[in-house]
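dumping this here before i forget
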Amino acid sequence: MPMFNPAFIFHALLEVPASLNFFFRPNEQLSSAAPQAHALIRQYAVLLMSSNIVALIFAFRPLDETSRRVAGALAVYHAAPLVRAVGRVAYQGEGYGKGLGGPWAHAVLHAGALGALGWLLVGW
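structure:
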């Protein structure tokens, strides 16, 4: 019976709303986005959704070396939104609005995902 890996589920739960938001509301992602940017934002949304599919595949299989490496790759992804959120917090939340919880929520959730996936990577 496959082992349940909550870190992968956490990634998917965190990123499904983000990918849907990017896909269906690309104009809200940039302060003054050109229409051409919408295609890139939607492409990013599909890429993010693909990472969710990969995470869900690995969530319900035994933990092995491949699972650890995938967890590491997903953990690296979470570093960028974490840095962005911390930057927004440092500048008192200034930016393009609160979208999906605001910078504090993003910082806490991405730090949690980074930690959970990193934990799988190192094998504790």
